[in-house]
């Protein structure tokens, strides 16, 4: 009898505890979401950098839709609405977003912190145009990530240590990958490769390589017959046996070129949109590995 009363009381008590727990869980979830920093980034690699550093303290949304060539993107009315509701807008800079002045003008009085991720990067030019593809350099990606980290620390100081720690870990990953491939590329005799659009200038600068491209910096226009002829001659003179090609940019021209010079076409990844099943470090490792193994075999 005594036992039954006890178990009855225990059941009631447990019931109260369960209700208590449920109620608590709901409030926790709600306030946790409210607490998160709402970040909008322009292009995909910035989403990865912001997620790496912000972790579970942030919600990051990318403006340019998946599978869209960001050089072709223009913001829509709904994008402006999303932007004005966010806390932070991070863009690549250096002309990657031709529309960014218009966006910044619209959101600057709406309490949105605007971050140019390229601040402090040593800018390179190609044919007098500024090259915006800084995220494809492990060195520049580190500066972009540091700019993002500094913004998060400023806006959410109570989580400073968390952001600093995440940044430190990511920085180490970037440095380790660089240190792994730098000596390998230094030992190579062959340094030239052909790619789809001129996206790998910063990667080349990091590793002492040279790219020639089928399309220009902004993935505009297919080559003229004269330019194609120059590329064919370049490949023949340099005995180039690999043509790198991107999913979003002129794969047909790359195939034509490869056929003309007896080379094979190998995919290379610009990270201008999400690569299924690969994160930033994995994509960079893939690119470096493919470039290295092609150049070392040629
Ligand atoms: Zn590009």
Report what the structure shows.
By secondary structure, this protein is of the alpha/beta class. It has 2 domains: 36-179, Nitrogenase molybdenum iron protein domain (Rossmann fold, 3-Layer(aba) Sandwich); 189-297, Nitrogenase molybdenum iron protein domain (Rossmann fold, 3-Layer(aba) Sandwich). Helix content is 53%, strand content 14%. The chain has helices spanning 2-35, 44-54, 77-85, 100-107, 138-155, 160-187, 201-207, 225-237, 251-261, 280-297; strands at residues 37-41, 58-62, 88-91, 113-116, 125-126, 129-130, 192-197, 210-215, 242-245, 264-267. Helix 2 (44-54) packs across helix 5, helix 5 packs antiparallel against helix 6 and helix 6 (160-187) runs parallel beside helix 10. Mean pLDDT is 88; it is low at 1-29. Bound molecules: zinc ion. Zinc ion (ZN) binds next to loops. Residues 71, 133, 197, 199, 219, 270, 272 line the site of zinc ion.
């Amino acid at each position: 009898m005594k036992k039954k009363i006890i178990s009855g009381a225990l059941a009631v008590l447990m019931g109260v505890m369960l209700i208590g727990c449920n109620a608590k869980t709901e409030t926790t979830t709600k306030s946790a979401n409210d607490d998160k920093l709402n970040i909008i980034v322009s292009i995909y690699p910035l989403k990865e950098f912001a997620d790496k550093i912000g972790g579970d303290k942030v919600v990051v949304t990318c403006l340019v839709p998946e599978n869209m060539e960001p050089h072709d993107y223009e913001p829509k009315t709904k994008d402006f609405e999303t932007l004005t509701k966010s806390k932070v807008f991070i863009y690549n800079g250096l002309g990657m977003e031709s529309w960014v002045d218009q966006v910044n003008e619209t959101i600057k009085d709406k309490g949105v912190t605007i971050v140019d991720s390229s601040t402090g990067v040593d800018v390179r030019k190609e044919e007098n145009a500024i090259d915006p593809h800084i995220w494809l350099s492990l060195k520049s990606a580190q500066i972009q990530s540091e700019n993002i980290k500094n913004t998060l620390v400023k806006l959410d100081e109570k989580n400073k240590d968390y952001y600093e720690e995440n940044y430190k870990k990511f920085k180490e990953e970037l440095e380790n990958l660089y240190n792994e491939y730098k000596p390998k590329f230094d030992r190579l005799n062959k340094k030239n490769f052909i790619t789809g659009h001129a996206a790998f200038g910063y990667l080349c600068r990091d590793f002492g390589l040279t790219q020639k491209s089928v399309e220009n910096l902004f993935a505009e226009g297919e080559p003229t017959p004269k330019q194609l002829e120059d590329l064919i001659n370049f490949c023949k003179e340099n005995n180039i046996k690999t043509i790198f090609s991107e999913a979003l940019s002129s794969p047909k021209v790359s195939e034509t070129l490869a056929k003309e010079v007896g080379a094979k076409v190998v995919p290379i990844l610009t990270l201008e949109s999400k690569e299924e099943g690969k994160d930033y470090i994995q994509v960079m490792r893939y690119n470096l590995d493919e470039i290295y193994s092609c150049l070392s075999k040629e």
